[in-house]
Design brief:
Distance between the termini: 37 Å
Strand order of the largest sheet: 1-5-2
Number of helices: 7
CATH class of the largest domain: Alpha Beta
Helix content: 40-55%
CATH superfamily of the largest domain: Endonuclease/exonuclease/phosphatase
CATH architecture of the largest domain: 4-Layer Sandwich
Length: 231
């Protein structure tokens, strides 16, 4: 199947090409957990032959199989050599709900030389453990210096970049990034935590008794709760 799909790609050395697909292929190149490659021989051969580069950020799961409790990197993006440097900010949109087990993937194509400002929403920070008092005090102590520097900068774009860097430096001091997992969602709440625990308990109890109906019922209730919270 992969061979047939890749054969449809019209190759031209002057064209800038991006290929995005659910390849359902497992390889350590994009997933360090994989020790034995699956369905990758034709894909790797084609990518190397035509000198394409991987766009994905390695080891970020794009697929979650909740019934089997398995995460995978299945959705891959490759770019031709003359296109790869124009692609920035590949990331998962954790707030999007596709009603499927695949994540929504986003990236930016920049065809001109411009200074990019990183979208702070793409980083998963543990905001619940921030000492906001210390955070605010630090900003208050440094604001006068920032204001003086801002007044010396004439370009609006340069001011935005400088202010962004100041805020990012403060964030590094007081805010820690979350560990990425299935529950690393901005909309995650205590109700879903309890449902998640219940689902795991049912799974452990029922998988040995072949009580699949109860497992499916709980899983459907869990996913319905997620959709309700997102909407």
């Amino acid at each position: 199947m992969i061979e047939r799909e890749l054969a449809k790609v019209m190759l031209n050395s002057e064209q800038k090409v991006i290929i995005i697909e659910d390849f359902n292929a497992h390889h350590s190149w994009w997933n360090a957990k994989i020790s034995n490659s699956i369905r990758t021989k034709a894909l790797i051969k084609w990518v190397n032959l035509h000198k394409y580069d991987l766009i994905n950020t390695s080891d970020i799961d794009t697929y979650h199989n909740y019934s089997d409790q398995l995460n995978s990197v299945l959705d891959l993006a490759f770019a031709s050599k003359n296109m790869h440097n124009y692609i920035k900010n590949w990331h998962i949109n954790e707030n999007a709900d596709t009603e499927f087990n695949h994540e929504v993937i986003l990236f930016t194509i920049v065809m001109k030389k411009v200074k990019l400002i990183e979208n702070s929403l793409n980083a998963s920070y543990n905001l619940q453990k921030v000492d906001w008092k210390d955070f605010n005090e630090h900003l208050q102590k440094t604001k006068d210096k920032m204001i003086v520097k801002m007044q010396r900068i004439t370009s609006l774009e340069a001011k935005v970049i400088y202010l962004t860097e100041c805020i990012k430096n403060t964030v590094k001091l007081f805010v820690f990034k979350q560990r990425i997992c299935v529950k690393s969602k901005l909309w995650w709440n205590n109700e879903l935590i309890e449902m998640w625990k219940t689902k795991k308990q049912i799974w452990k109890r029922c998988k040995n008794d072949d009580a699949w109906a109860e497992i499916v019922q709980m899983q459907n209730s869990y996913h319905d709760a997620i959709k309700l919270i997102k909407n």
